[in-house]
């Protein structure tokens, strides 16, 4: 993954954080479209990342384990952020949500942890081509878990 793709990933994170700090309805297809886009982009980037690494040597158990751990960590941060989202019923009966300062802090910590995991993954490959390719997949997983849990909380209001 090149620096341009990483910058695009960081812009996406900034837009996600900004959007989560605004009051919005919980329902709608917008998050599903974004999740689909990030998931597809993440899978493509990951497949190309793996293909780039295996040109030099096979993937080791440590690389596979760290990549899986990175995605598990993404799910954990998504669950943690979902708990920090304020969810309430609006005046017209629709469920609304808005993130807090803690939500933002967890996004930033999550991103820092992911960057650290990227470097660790790349260290295990010896070629430095796989770690950054997991960014979009990481974002898709963390956002999907957060969205699912916020939707569950909103459904409990009805």
Automatic annotation (TrEMBL):
<keyword id="KW-0812">Transmembrane</keyword>
<feature type="transmembrane region" description="Helical">
    <location>
        <begin position="100"/>
        <end position="117"/>
    </location>
</feature>
<feature type="transmembrane region" description="Helical">
    <location>
        <begin position="59"/>
        <end position="80"/>
    </location>
</feature>
<protein>
    <submittedName>
        <fullName>Membrane protein</fullName>
    </submittedName>
</protein>
<feature type="transmembrane region" description="Helical">
    <location>
        <begin position="6"/>
        <end position="21"/>
    </location>
</feature>
<feature type="transmembrane region" description="Helical">
    <location>
        <begin position="33"/>
        <end position="53"/>
    </location>
</feature>
<keyword id="KW-1133">Transmembrane helix</keyword>
<feature type="transmembrane region" description="Helical">
    <location>
        <begin position="129"/>
        <end position="150"/>
    </location>
</feature>
<keyword id="KW-0472">Membrane</keyword>
